[in-house]
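Problem: given the chain below (434 residues), write out its structure.
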Amino acid sequence: MTRALVIGAVAACFAAAGIAIFANGIPWSKPGGYFVSHATAADGGAAADAEPGRKIKYYRNPMGLPDTSPTPKKDSMGMDYIPVYEGEDSDDGSIKLSPGRIQRSGVKSEPVMLHIVSTLIRAPGTIQLDERRISVIAMRAESYVQKVADVTTGSRVAKGQPLMEIYSPAVSSAAAEYLATITSKTTATIETYGRGSRQRLMNLDVPESAIATMEKTKAVPIAIQWSAPRDGIVLERNAIEGMRAQPGDVLFRVADISLVWAVVDIAERDVGSITVGQPVTVRARGFPGRAFAGKISVIYPQVNRETRTVRLRIELDNADLALLPDMYVDAEIEIGSQDPVLAVPDSSVLDNGSRQTVIIEKGGGRFEPREVKVGHRGGGYVEITEGIGEGESVVTSANFLIDAESNLKAALKGFSEADSTQDTSSTSGMGGRP
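Solution.
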């Protein structure tokens, strides 16, 4: 009696959870507080469900109790015992359903095939300047701005384009010394002191073009012309005609934006799927419908504590200078398999958090739960790395019902074995006493 109560409690737990229980291949529910066999109610019981031409081995208890009968009978609640045919019993964990039961349950399956399993990660970010493509024009000695070219902040300049003319006493002194050295008739003097004098001009950041002009004209210029060090955009102009500039004062800042960075943040959980060099598509909110191709150049080695995100740097070609600093962008990163892999539909995987299972259709109405290992997910499919092979059929619909029946069958088998062991122990303990 205790065993029957325990098994009944197991069945009650499944029903209380709102799951239709498949006890021995028959769906059960609990209307009005009693377990009722749908097969009995809808199909007329065991006699109506019997399949002609197949040999019945025995009859099972409709409540799943470990009680069998060689002939048809009813239990204490008036429900018919369920026929068990030859070939239906299996100890490998599989279960068998009749074609009628499969149709009523809505069981569907499809073969395991190769699919490209990928997921698209979208991450917001902004456009930033490439730090390696920024140049600053600053004086290294006290200077005076004689003249400034017609260039303003935001202007595009080319390398070598004149920006301003500077007079500096220190530069003039170094230039006079250098010219005096190179105009000397003593070769030893030129080799000994000329190299040092020229280096002094270079240390003062005098442009190479200005030094070449001095060597050609053999004259000390009153003002030295400063030019743009690279192609780019003027980000900052602080030079004003007539101003006095101290050493270190930034007069111009020029940046080349033909190559820019998109700095985006991705979720911490996706970091393991990202690699340096991976292609990325970036879309600027200011240019709807246009896509910019780039690649990941740096994965920053730090996680933001507040947002739990990791920052990525994406290099973008910006030949037409459409992308501007601080512009909002959205990056699209495709992760997963680039080549086809073994995969099954999302709906076919039963996941309890620590274990993933699929139901394999073995043919002839027989189904087998099988544990698998999963990989990437995306596009409605799950990559299977271990557990099944190509060509096998997995159940994609009503698989949780079959799994519930399989679990119930395993539980009943365990109760039955435990009960048999207990009976054997009791008989041994009696020592043959009457």
